[in-house]
Amino acid sequence: MNSPRELSFSIRIRAGNRTLVDIPDYSLPERRLMILFGESGIGKSLINRAVYGLLDGDEFQATINGQDAASYTSTPWVRSVQENGFFVFQEPSTHLYPLLTLGEQLREGSLKDSVSEDAILGELWSGTPTARPSSLLGVYPKPYRPSGGEKQRMLLAMAFKKIDLFLARGEAELPSLFLFDEPTGSLDNRFRDIVLSMLFDRYRRMAFTGVVVSHDYSLISMIRKEHKDLAEAVVFRELALEKSALVLRKFEPETYLGWLSVQHPPPRSPGGRQIARIESDVGVFHRTLTIARDREGSVPAPLVLNQGAMTYLKAPSGTGKTTLAKMMIGLLRGERFSMTLGGDTVGVGTREEFWRKRVWGKSMTMVFQHADEALNPRSTVFDTFKGLPTESMPTRDWVRRTLHELFEPDMADEILEREVSNLSGGQKQRLNLLRGLSLETGLIILDEPLNGLDFESSIRVLDLLRERQQRGNSILVISHNEEIFDSQVGDEGIYYLVQ
Amino acid sequence: MKGEKLAARPDLVWLLVWLAGMGVLLLWDLAFLNNPALKRLLNALFNTLAAGLTVVVLALLLGWACGAGLYLLERRGRKGVYLTMTFLLNIVRSVPQIVGILAGYIVLTLLIEREVLVGSAALLFWMSAIVAVFVFLDIADLVRGRIAQFAALDFYPAMLCCGVSEARIVNVEILWKNSRAHLLHAMIAVFGMAVFLQCSIDFILSVGLSTEVSASNFPATLGGLLATMDSKQDILAVGTILTDPAYTPQLFFRHLQGLSVAFALIFTLLCIHTITAGFVRRRRL
Predict the structure, then answer these.
(1) Which CATH code is given to the segment(s) A6-261?
(2) Residues of B in contact with A362 (CB under 8 A)
(3) CA-based nearest residue in chain B for residue A445
(4) Which of B157, B163, B172 is nearest residue A331 as measured by Cβ atoms?
(5) Chain B: nearest CA to A138, how far in angstroms?
(6) Cα A72 to chain center, whole Å?
(7) Residue among A366, A374, A383 whose CB faces B155 most closely
(8) Could you give the percent of chain A with pLDDT greater than 70?
(9) Interface test with B, best of A332, A360, A369, A402 (most B CBs within 10 A)
(10) Which end of chain B is more exposed for a tag (fewer CB within 10 A), N or C?
(11) According to CATH, where is 3.40.50.300 located in chain A?
């Protein structure tokens, strides 16, 4: 395969006096599929919206290749891209129009000409309780119905219909661009694989330009294993800050694969004291959840958390992993729950006073999965550590030292007095983790700790977790990054939650 | 550029308009209003504004303490204290503000008669305290609303799990860091309400009560001044221009006391309203 022609863009986006994005060279390989990684909040979505001509509004002042957004959007290239391509937004609710049914939107404009709808819907809904989503087609999108996963599948169905229309024209040279901004964020790994296979199958029929924005580095292994023939067609790149400048750089798959190949779970310390034990039968929201040793739930077992060990709890999205974690830390009372914590047995009747005096920040803590919501946006980074039950009031030096565990020293100094709302998504996630990990609690529950992090930050987090294990902390991880955490936790530390 | 910046801050613009309007009024009165009336007017204006500010401070303290206190009592399961406090507050809520404040003034009157309360500063404070009791519930409701809104977000339980005390989460993280703009908005509204209520009550008192304990005992406010015979005649003179338009210029020279009081009151309330509206728009509350 010849090296691709690059579509180059110089992009600057401002909101008021603030520069949000300034990247002099953002390039897309033409008629290739680019997988774009990068820390959350670094500007991936904004840049791609700018390229696609979607920043022509009052909210931003964008300059693309020297043109203002309005002039850029009216260029023939952008008009052709918008006519022949598709943009799958990260948050499906923002893409769908609430005054049209899903069915009407699925057949809107040129999409009505596509004949592949049934096949696409069948593939996207295969193996779900709704075998065929015909019942959904008459529904108007609302915030809580259909579910996030159903909305995301519907958007993907539109995108695949549009690709099929493009392929049917057979004009490979026609400017087009198919952008998928975290297209499987609400779906589990099985559906991620289905979606990518659908995309790659279409690419094999005729090459087109596509971008998939993702944080999921295990895509690399999946593509290498199951789509070897596309090794050259799929290009991995990463948006990163280099000396405070935003750059797009190559991401060598071997960086991830090489790292993964040398990962081995640390041997489980035989003398590790039991920190907590959660009985396998859990009842909450009138549902029964079972903690088990196998994916099917045929071998129920109590979840045992030992000192100095990392334990990994797996389950498909929506099963109730976070719910169980919230029950463990006393934020939710279910119908059936029993846990031994230290010498105490706690259950659904345990008074909140117990959690307040003995558990929260003392024997156990939990790091929530959405850093955006878990941190006070109006606090400064320094203030985020105030009020924690540390031995003494945190000083600036103490906070700086804590930040150095996951931030470069100059960056730590720079953000110390910055408001949380002004941090990038990845920075927020690192701060969220550090707040929990800075406590001297025996047990730390981490809900999706690698959310929104780039590869470099993920490795730093994993190193930090290993260091905490060595200090004697027990760590319970809930994560969809199976490939990564399977490499960190041995079989004896892996549990499944089954509904 | 400066003009653009100012246009984006309508609350500041209206504060400047109020200052300018009151400045023009003062200059006009300095030039044309007789000295005793001018002194009475300035004294009443000062007292009204001071009482309004005192009401704001007291209502904020009461509202914050009750709103946050009730929430924490409920969370800690102190049902007895929580229900008693809620019951008492609901009793206050059920009393019409004017009636409640008039009842409070009766108590003040008794205290003045027995010479327990002496000195205009002390009187002004207790007059404000009575008004504050009947307006602070708006701030208490706002405080509870803000806490409820944030308690539903992840950041509240996330901080709890890290061992941060609920008192800190409520008072510092929610109310201080995330609700100052909302509280300031409520305070501006309370100030307007306080000026309005204070003047209404003083007007009623000055017009309707005995002369033994009346405006001469209570510190003068704009409401009280408006009820004096001179001011009432000035206001009535406005009606003259309906039959004799040529009399209009005379209003601005011969009937200044009443007109100045009325202007200061209406203009202040109008500006408070627009300052609040501008503030809400600017901070997107």
Answers:
(1) 3.40.50.300
(2) 163
(3) B161
(4) B157
(5) 32
(6) 31
(7) A374
(8) 97
(9) A360
(10) N
(11) 6-261, 274-498
Place of tokens 């490979």: A172
CB contact under 8 A, B163 and A361: yes
Homologous superfamily of A274-498: P-loop containing nucleotide triphosphate hydrolases (3.40.50.300)
Structural domains of chain B ordered from first start: 9-283 (1.10.3720.10)
Backbone angles phi, psi at B37, to 5 degrees: -65, -40
Angstrom CA distances, B268 to B11, B15, B21, B201, B263, stand at: 13, 10, 9, 17, 8
- B57 CA: distance to closest CA in chain A (Å): 24
Are A376 and B159 an interchain contact pair (Cβ–Cβ within 8 Å)? yes
pLDDT for res A269: 65
Query: In this complex, which of B155, B161, B177 lies closest to A360 when CB atoms are compared?
Result: B161
- Please give the structure tokens belonging to residue A349: 């009747």
The answer to whether the CB of A93 falls within 8 A of the CB of A143 is yes
Q: Is the ipTM of this complex over 0.90?
A: no
pLDDT tens per residue across span A155-212: 999 999 999 999 999 988 889 999 999 888 767 788 889 999 999 999 999 999 999 9
Chain A residue with CA closest to B179: the answer is A378
Query: Which single residue is written with the structure tokens 């010498």?
Result: A343
| Secondary structure (DSSP) of A37-106 | EE-TTSSHHHHHHHHTT---SSS-EEEETTEEHHHHHTSHHHHHHHHH-EEE-SSHHHHS-TTS-HHHHH
CA angle in degrees (0–180, nearest 5) for A407-A412-A415: 120
CA B85 to chain centre: 25
**CB-based contacts of B213: which residues, under 8 Å, 6+ apart?**
B109, B112, B113
Nearest to B155 among A360, A373, A387 (CB): A373
